[in-house]
Structures are given as structure tokens and as C-alpha cells.
Amino acid sequence: MTAVPGQRPAAATPPEAGDAAGDDLRGLFGQSIAVFASLAGPSHVVEVANPAFFATIGEERARTGVAIAELLPELADQGFVALLDEVYRTGEPYTGRDARVVLGAGPHAREAFFDFTYEPRHDADGAVTGIRVIGVETTQVKHAQRLMAEHRALLEQIARQAPLPEVLEGMARCIENLAPQEVLVSVLLADPDGRHLRHGAAPSLPDFYNQAIDGIATGEGVGSCGTAAHRREPVIVTDIAADPFWADFRGLAERAGLAACWSTPILARDGSLLGTFAVYHRTPRIPQDTDLALIQIFTGTAALAIERHHIEQAKAEAEARARAAHDQLAEAVRAERELRGEAERRAATAAELAARMRAAAAAQAARPRPERCQLGGAPGCTAAAEIKIADSWGDSAWGCPIHVEEAILNVRSVFIASEELGGLAGYLNR
């Protein structure tokens, strides 16, 4: 990657009479937080540098008399040595703004940003003899700007009610990208009773690890997260291999390549447990103030997202219950209308039947009583007519006890009509 393009002044810096100002510059930058180094010759040998320069590149590389390309070989592929060559060749200074540089290599590599100037040094004849490097690291400012932008995006996600897993996973990836060293972020969500923690988001942890800790209990000594949830306070485990809290999970952590875990409880405004926010490291590590500040910011953001989710979830459940109650009421009203209609139809049928029975009773009362049984069928019956029977259709007959019993058993809706008591007409008009 090449350096961020800068600005060139219209004219080169006037030649100096020798390098008498070198001592003054060393005195000026000796205790400064600004990075200063004086390079000599076309190979850019480091003649002098202030403590801030060596602190920036790493104290293990703090030496002079070495070409910058040898001291910082990683700069060659990033365009910075080529810029030094150009400034030495042209004698024109170069200024870069927010230039990104990766210092170191492998697991010790770190991203940094600088505002810097390459200032040519001249001898009495005006020839370029070397370059002064003056810079100010802007990494923290750059990271703060990125942090604010990422945080604003998360708040916008929460405001537009994005799904909670989407918000939490985005937050985890944001922190992993912002952290100066490799970290792996996990968010666990508390069950309603606060006794267990469920998987929320952990995009960079292996699946077997997430599945193993999904549903772990909250309690003293249950890893970093279970203990933090139980205590309602942060639990910093700097070395998993030696910490008693991880006795039951040490093999799992080793398999996942985890060596440190800092866990912070996520609490609601009323103090109830919402979950835990954990930062894992591949090597044992003690948190710095910047780490704790970053954790604090995003723990609060996670609390906001989870609480908002709970509110929306409760609202949706209340609306679902209201819809169910409305549907039940509508069903009850419909059933009541059907029952009322059926009752009205039954009442009408009963009234019609009663009218027909009254008519039948009146017709029966007008008929004379015969002497012989009328129910004997085609052969006839010579027994005396003792009992009168009738049906709801207005038919009636007199018969002997035997044939009356047969009729009652075999003919639908037959009943005995009692003339001694005035018949059905007398009963209905009582």
C-alpha cells in the first residue's frame, strides 16, 4: 500500500550553513511526543532519533547507524522509502496527512496513522545530505473517528428496529475491526429468570465453542461470563490456563485457541441482567485503559439494543394477545348469534307443533265414541272401545287396551287422549 498523497510547497527549503541546527532540533524533539529522526545519505541511515520515534517503531529496534530500509523493512512495500528517495533526489519536502502505515510483522504488526513531513537537509553548497522526518501519530484520532462512525451506525440500526442478532453481530465485528490487536467478541443473552446465558452473537468464535457454552449457568466460578453475570460486575481473566474460574472449560478454550477472556455484565436500567459482553484474546493479556473504555461504550450500546428488543417483543406479544382476544370475542358473538337463531327456529317449530296439537285436540273432542275397537286393522276387533289415542297430525281412534298398546309402540307421536279430563283442549286451556 502506498502512502497517502501529500502536499508539496512551491519552493524548496533554503540551504543551511552546515548542520548546526541539528543539536537544536534534537533538543526540541528530545522529550516531545512528536516523532523525529534525522536520516543521512541516499540510503537514509538513521543518525539520531528521539524516544518517541523508537517507541513508535518498537524499543527492540532502537538503534542508529542503520539504513531505514534495514531498520524498518516493512516500509519498503508501503511506499515510504520511495518517497524518501524522491525527496532526497529533488530536494523538495513532502507532507503527508493521515498516512496509514503497518509497523512490524506477523502477530506483532499494528496499524498506525501519521501526519508527517520529510524535510531535506542541505550542506553549505545547497546539496542534499539527508532528510529529517517529523511526524505526529494520529492513530487515536483516526480510531476515535472510526469508532464514532461505527457507533452512530449501530445506533441507527437500533433506531430502525433492526433484528437483534443483526445488531449484535454488527457490533461484534465492529469491535474486532477497531481493536488494535486481534480480539474475538461474544455476546450472551440472559434467560428471563437470569439463571442461564444463551448465544447472542460471536461471529469469529468457532461453532463448536458457541454451541458448548450456549445455555451455561450463571454462578460463581462459571468461566468469565457466568461469574460476571452472577456478580453483576466485570470479570477479567488474563490467563485462562491458570485461572480457577475456567477449570471446567479450560480444555474447550484450549481447543478454540483462547488464552484470555474479559467479560462484562450487560445490565438494564433497572439493574436486571440482560446478558454478558466478552472479549477473547489468543494470548494472555491485561486490559489497557483504552480497552476498558471501548468495552464500556459497547456494553452500553448492547444494553440499549437488548432492552429495545425486549420492549418491541413485549409490544408484539401484547398486540398478538389483543388480536387473539378480539378473534375470540368475534367467534363468541358469531356462536351466540347462531345459538340465538337456532333457539328462535326451535321456538317457532314448538309453537307450530303446539298449534297443531290444539287443533287435533279440538277435532278429537268433536268425534263420537264408538262401541267397538277401531284399531284391529282389516280383520277388525270386537272388543269394547275403552281408550282413545291421538297424534299431532289430528288423527284419533278408539281401541281396546291391547291394540292401543300396539299403536303406542309402533306409531310415531301417539298419545292417549283423556275425555274424562276434558282431553288436550281442556289441558291447554286450563
Topology:
Elements: H1 21-29, E1 35-40, E2 45-49, H2 51-57, H3 68-71, H4 80-90, E3 94-103, E4 110-122, E5 128-137, H5 139-159, H6 164-178, E6 184-190, E7 196-201, H7 207-213, E8 216-217, H8 223-231, E9 235-237, H9 250-256, E10 260-267, E11 273-281, H10 289-366, E12 387-391, E13 396-399, H11 401-410, E14 414-417, H12 423-428
Antiparallel strand pairs: 1-2, 1-5, 3-4, 4-5, 6-7, 6-11, 7-8, 9-10, 10-11, 12-13, 12-14
Helix pairs in contact: 5-6, 5-10, 6-10
Strand order of the largest sheet: 8-7-6-11-10-9
List the helices and strands in order. HEEHHHEEEHHEEHEHEHEEHEEHEH
Quaternary organization: single chain
Shape: rod-shaped
The unreliable regions are: 1-22, 24-32, 423-430
Pfam families: GAF_2 (PF13185), PAS_4 (PF08448)
Region (Disordered): 1-23
Domain GAF: 159-316
Protein name: GAF domain-containing protein
Verbal overview:
It comes from Micromonospora maritima. InterPro entries: GAF, GAF-like_dom_sf, PAS_4. Residues 9-20 have a biased composition (Low complexity). This protein is α+β, with helices and mostly antiparallel strands. It has three domains: 21-137, Beta-Lactamase, CATH 3.30.450; 143-315, Beta-Lactamase; 367-428, no CATH class. The chain is built from twelve helices and 14 strands. The protein has helices spanning 21-29, 51-57, 68-71, 80-90, 139-159, 164-178, 207-213, 223-231, 250-256, 289-366, 401-410, 423-428; strands at 35-40, 45-49, 94-103, 110-122, 128-137, 184-190, 196-201, 216-217, 235-237, 260-267, 273-281, 387-391, 396-399, 414-417. Strand 4 and strand 5 form a beta hairpin. It is rod-shaped. 29% of the residues are buried.
